């Protein structure tokens, strides 16, 4: 036994990103995850470029560590396998369209009848009864995320990653772990529901807080922060340097590092934010004498939070230099994506399986899940 979720069985009926990201996190933590795909497969298998051989890197990035089986739920025999898997699982995760799960007796009420201890997680776009398709970019649009992303006066802009899907997957994983703890205390399973819109509103944090507490509707500020300054990229002799000043002490260090005189207009954080149009040209003029990397070395050495802007390859190289080993590898050395950011002192994360090819593990599922007698306890007991 290694991972903290060792011995738990997860039936993964999800597809695309939010659900698969959630179940990959559970697999990283030691759970046995069985990914169920329909005859056409998870559509992210075809979302390319980029690809690694014949496989879309999109699919590979969120499906490591899982067993895989293809089930045509319109076929009675395959539907029975799906129900047997749900009846044996500790956790069931699905993002079916509204009404679809009940059609195959895979909805919560049906699963609870045969498996009252199951933690059943439903992931939807906009609530269980909404017909709105659950695509990340729609959630970014409808949540207000895009309204606060982009340059002032410019068009609303989506994030460079499907951030709402990722956050929703994280919320689903947290909810599942909480429900498993509840089951450990009471023996009761329960239904965990997560949706993209609610996750996006929560993840907008201070931006939605501005509306909830003060009735303020935030607007696009580009790389500006609405409440603190300087906080974002500034030009140097050869590129941008990101500076993140969160308090007065840090600003004093920045001012000294740049050789700027004391100016009472900018001593307090609120004043710097309100007078950013006066402070910005002074910072830009001081930064123009050196490169972004040179300023990073000087200023970070003085305790000023700052960084050059790296591309993803450079970010991986940085993580390597810091000893963070950013690539996840199986025991055989196969790369299976980006390493889990969660590390444990007593139950280390292991990457045991590469992302499944279609139907790779049908024999295993039928032997270890469907055919085994459940009277001896839950899976792994």
Question: In a nutshell, what does this entry contain?
Answer:
This protein has 15 helices and 13 strands. It has 381 residues and is α/β, with parallel strands linked by helices. The chain has two domains: 9-204 and 328-376, Rossmann fold (3-Layer(aba) Sandwich); 231-308, formyl-coa transferase, domain 3 (2-Layer Sandwich), CATH 3.30.1540.10.
Task: Give an overview of the whole structure.
There is one protein chain. The chain is of the alpha/beta class and 381 residues long. It has 2 domains: 9-204 and 328-376, 3-Layer(aba) Sandwich (Rossmann fold); 231-308, formyl-coa transferase, domain 3, CATH 3.30.1540.10. It has helices at 18-28, 57-61, 76-88, 100-103, 108-114, 136-142, 163-186, 196-203, 206-214, 248-258, 269-274, 276-287, 292-301, 312-321, 362-370, and strands at residues 9-13, 32-37, 51-52, 55-56, 66-70, 91-94, 119-124, 190-195, 231-235, 240-244, 306-308, 327-329, 335-338. The strands form 4 sheets. A 6-stranded parallel sheet has the order 5-2-1-6-7-8, with helices on both faces. α1 crosses α7 (163-186).
């Amino acid at each position: 036994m290694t991972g903290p979720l060792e011995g738990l069985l997860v039936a993964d009926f999800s597809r695309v990103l939010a659900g698969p990201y959630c179940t990959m996190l559970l697999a990283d933590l030691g759970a046995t995850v069985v990914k169920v795909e329909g005859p056409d497969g998870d559509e992210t298998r075809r979302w390319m470029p980029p690809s690694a051989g014949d496989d879309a890197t999109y699919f590979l990035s969120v499906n490591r560590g899982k067993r895989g089986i293809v089930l045509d739920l319109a076929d009675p025999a395959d539907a029975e396998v799906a129900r047997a898997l749900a009846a044996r699982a500790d956790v069931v995760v699905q993002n079916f369209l509204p009404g679809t799960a009940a059609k195959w007796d895979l909805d919560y009420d049906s699963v609870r009848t045969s498996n009252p201890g199951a933690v059943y997680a439903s992931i939807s776009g906009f609530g269980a009864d909404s017909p709105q398709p659950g695509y990340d970019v729609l959630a970014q649009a409808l949540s207000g995320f895009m309204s606060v992303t982009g340059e002032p006066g410019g068009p609303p802009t989506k994030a460079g990653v499907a951030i709402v899907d990722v956050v929703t997957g994280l919320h689903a994983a947290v909810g599942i772990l909480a429900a498993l703890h509840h089951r450990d205390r009471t023996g009761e399973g329960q239904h965990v529901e997560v949706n993209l819109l609610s996750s996006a509103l929560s993840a907008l944090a201070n931006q939605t807080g501005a509306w909830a507490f003060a009735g303020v509707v935030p607007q696009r500020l580009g790389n500006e922060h609405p409440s603190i300054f300087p906080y974002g990229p500034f030009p140097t002799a050869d590129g941008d340097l990101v500076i993140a000043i969160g308090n007065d002490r840090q600003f004093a260090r920045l001012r000294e590092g740049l050789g700027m005189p004391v100016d009472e207009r900018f001593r307090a954080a609120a004043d710097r934010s309100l007078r950013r149009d006066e402070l910005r040209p002074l910072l830009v003029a001081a930064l123009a004498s050196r490169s972004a990397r040179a300023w990073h070395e000087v200023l970070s050495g003085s305790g000023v939070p700052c960084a050059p802007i790296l591309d993803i390859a450079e970010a991986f190289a940085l993580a390597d230099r810091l000893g963070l080993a950013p690539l996840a590898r199986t025991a055989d050395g196969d790369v299976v994506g980006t390493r889990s950011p969660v590390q444990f002192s007593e139950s280390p994360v292991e990457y045991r399986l590469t992302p499944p090819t279609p139907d790779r593990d049908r024999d295993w599922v039928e032997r270890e899940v469907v055919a085994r007698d459940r009277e001896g306890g839950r899976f792994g007991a």
